[in-house]
Amino acid sequence: MKPEIKVDHVIRKAVDDRHVDEGVIVHVDDTTGDYWWIPSQQLDKHGERLKHYIKAPRKDAQKSLEARIDSGEASLHRLEPTGLAVIPLAQLREKAEKAAKSPTKRTRNLVESLAFMDEQWSWIAPMVESEPIEVLLNVERVNAYAASRMVEFGVKAEQIVRAVRAYLAGGKKKEALLPGWERRGAPGKSRYPTPKDDNNPLKRAGRRNVAVEAGYAHLAGIQATPEVREKLRLGYRKYKTGKHISVRMAYTMTLAEYWAESVVITDGVRKVTLKPLEELPTYDQFRRHGPGADPANSATRINLGAHRWQRDHRALPGTERDKVVAAAQWGGMDSTSDDQNLVLGIDRTIALSASSNTKVTEGYTGYILGFHSGFERPSTMTALMAIAHSAESKVEFCKRYGIDITDNEWIALHLRRIRGDNGEHKSEGGINSLTKAQISLEFVQSYAAERKGTPESKHQTLHRASGHQLAGSTQGERHRRGDVDPKKDACRTHGEYMYHAIKAILYHNNVQRVEHLLTLEMRAEKVEPTRAAILKWMITKGYVTTDEPNMSVIRAACLPVLKGVVTRQGIQLFDPRTNDQRLIPHLRYSSKALQATGLTEQGSSFRQEVNVHLNPTRIGKAWLNFRGLVEVELLTHDVQLGDLALREWLEITDHDRLDRYLTKHVRLQLDANDAIDRYDSNVVARRVKEEHQKLNAALGRKKQAKPSKRKAAAMAQHDELQRRLGLGADLDVKADDIAIGAVKSNKHSEPDWVAAARASSSLH
Asked: DSSP assignment of 521-581, as one string?
């Protein structure tokens, strides 16, 4: 393909590992096949500054340049303005008018630059506005014009010639005549005092101090020679190490080390005598030359500290959305606190520990795909649960908190690449789990939050939209002494907080306007500027990198594992806060799928330990990892128990254990009295039996074998006949009287400790 040679393009060639601008094309003649170009200004022989002189235009054949471009030796690039020429001339005029009212050094330079440009324009305007380009490129014609007008303008002819060439090389614009004063001197190099004469070898730079103005010329101070500057730099780096050492204190310590006339040590204490004032560097010299050109040595940066500077003030290379062209190309993840003080649902006077949440966002739109809020501290477990939540349907999740949605109102996407910081999921277990689910991980650099700025920014958005407006909110701040403790205002359960958090997420995804995310293609098709609409459009157009998720694999990889045992009644879980020693009360899981495995039949003879995947924010369902995931449900008569978080149920069971202990004495008291009562009744019954045995022995009665039913009926009939005839009545009466007397006289024969207990109870 033939390269197109255009005016106002820079010819650039490669030299070693860098590029050098050769010149600017100022005219192209297609009829002759030639082009004119002006060489770029080069550095002087010392390599310290650009040469003031601009060379004359040169003519070359287009074919030669085309050959160089085809071979890769040269390339063409559009001429870009530099310095003040970047700003439109009208804006420069406006700034200059404002600067005239309150001039500073910087604004004075602007006014002087515009005056310099206008003066040069007055020299060349009669020629450049009336003559064609061919005349301006003719060296003889330009030299003749400059010689004829030099007396009129009171300048040298060379200055007029240079102005014409600068005008051509700058794109034939008036702004090209603006001075390049900002390019004076060697960039990044210090300027040192220069020799003046033999009697005064070094001319001191800077403004004269008050002593010199008063006539004390010998008190001008020392010059900032390379040796002086090196000492100032050494002292600054040695003593200015933190905010506890001020710049002035570092200055005085530097003087004591490098400008001491004498040092005397008395009793281990150093006494320093400084040199005369005119031989000491000034404080301003120390502030200027001590840090040097390295911005890392600035006093502000040292006072802030490396951590705070990296976090809040470092330069940002870009955002995480740069070069993202597809939905689900990557996902961001981050965790934060819920900024809430929550209470227990069964007793709102009982405060719960602080809860935290983890969000998973889509990289391009910032759409919140997954959300996990619980009482667990941010960890690998919470990160994995948020990833699992992003891939599954949210309909049942929202319904638990009283919000009815469809799958279209909260989209589920399976992310193949997750980006986070060096915290939640940076662990061997997390990496292995996500690798099994075919999800890759990216860890951003420390203190580089802009590389996952989407989830970071969503924390504050959701806090302001819902959390900070609720009673008991911490407002994202720590409790300070003297302030009202927000815990005293806590009155909301975790489920009630989740209702407001979900509403805020739905608003963020489906309602909030994000025009800045629209591309020209989206605008042409009238896509609504919301995250949900943009994400759905990208999925419809095929701008998406995802696939159908395998929830069994994701649950097995992401949901936390709790240990439990299988019995014939089902699965019971161990309390995760103990070392597999205590089962969680009243949590028993079972299902037909579990019974089909045969584990419950084996549990009739022994308990088999198993691993169960459980979402700790909802204990109603669990998954047993046995030859694949087996879903089990909580067996309970309480329909609300299944929607409870594991932390809440553990708090309830802990409350039950505490209440059982506090009321234990009442039960022990009742049990003790009941036991004594039963003991006393046994003593009485046994003594009555003994009296009966003695009476029977005195009457010669012997214990007979138990008669048969037939014989017992005959004997009962005989005894009834005897009573009707009045036979044997005296004997029975006497026996009854003996038995009653034994019971009445029992209190005289009971043990001493029983009698004492009865006497004590009667007093009370």
From this structure: HHHHTT--SBHHHHHHHHHHHT-B------HHHHHHHHS-EEEEEEETTEEEEEPTTSSS-
Model-level pTM?
0.52
Contact 434, 557 (CB under 8 A): yes
In angstroms, the CA 208 to CA 217 distance is: 9
Q: Comparing C-alpha atoms, which of 481, 504, 365, 387 is closest to residue 437? A: 387
Query: What is the block-wise mean pLDDT of the chain (764 residues), using blocks of 10 residues?
Result: 81 78 90 91 68 88 89 87 82 81 66 89 92 92 92 91 92 87 59 60 65 80 86 92 90 92 87 89 89 83 79 60 71 82 83 84 88 84 84 89 91 82 66 69 60 56 65 72 75 86 90 88 91 91 76 76 85 84 86 83 69 84 83 85 84 86 87 88 88 83 67 77 63 45 47 60 50
Q: Are strands 34-39 and 561-567 parallel, antiparallel or unpaired?
A: unpaired
Looking up tokens 């020693």 gives 581
* Secondary structure letter of residue 603 according to DSSP: T
Closest C-alpha among 213, 218, 220, 257 to residue 235: 257
Long-range Cβ contact pairs of 694-701 (< 8 A, separation 24 or more): 695/735, 695/738, 695/739, 699/731
Residue 321 identity (one-letter amino acid) = R
Closest CA to 354 of 376, 331, 324, 384: 376
Contact 146, 157 (CB under 8 A): yes
* Phi, psi for 125 (deg, rounded to 5): -55, -45
Neighbours of 260 (CB within 10 A): 13
Report the C-alpha gap between 509 and 102 in whole angstroms: 49
Q: 3-state DSSP call for residue 155?
A: coil
Helices (H) and strands (E) in the chain, counts: 28, 18
What residue type is assigned to position 760 of the chain? S
Type of residue numbered 427: S
Taking CA atoms, 390 is separated from 372, 410, 432, 647, in Å, by: 9, 10, 19, 22
What's the number of CA atoms in the CB half-sphere (13 Å) around residue 262? Answer: 2
| DSSP three-state, residue 301 | helix
CA torsion 202-205-209-211 (nearest 10°) is 10
Which residue stretches of 299-440 are H helix? Answer: 299-304, 306-312, 380-391, 395-399, 428-436
Q: What is the pLDDT of residues 681-740, one digit of tens each?
A: 988 898 888 888 888 888 876 665 666 777 778 777 777 777 777 665 444 444 445 444
- Are 24 and 9 a contacting pair, CB within 8 Å? yes
**Whether 594 contacts 630, CB under 8 Å:** yes
